[in-house]
Amino acid sequence: MNLGPHDLGPHAGFILGAYAFTALVIAGLIWHAVRDRRAQTRALAALQEPTAPAARSSGAGA
Asked: What is the pTM (predicted TM-score) of this model?
């Protein structure tokens, strides 16, 4: 079975373009998810860092 652009009929350009656009959108979503995960990991690490001793003691005296 040999599939090529001629087997898609007269709308081959539209069909292949739709597949290419869909692949581009999915790649963009994956890229965005990876980028967001990195940002969330950095934010979580910043929240988990212990605060400086001076900052801890200033709130205890109030």
From this structure: 0.62
State the virtual CA torsion across 32, 38, 42, 47 in degrees, nearest 10.
70
d(CA 46, CA 26): 30
Instruction: Name the DSSP letter for residue 4.
Output: -
Q: Which residues contact 12 (CB under 8 A, 6 or more apart)?
A: 5, 6
Burial class (CB in 10 A: 0-12, 13-18, 19+), 53: exposed
> Tens of pLDDT along 33-43?
999 999 999 99
Tokens describing residue 15: 């069909």
Q: Is residue 6 a contact partner of residue 12, using CB atoms and an 8 Å limit?
A: yes
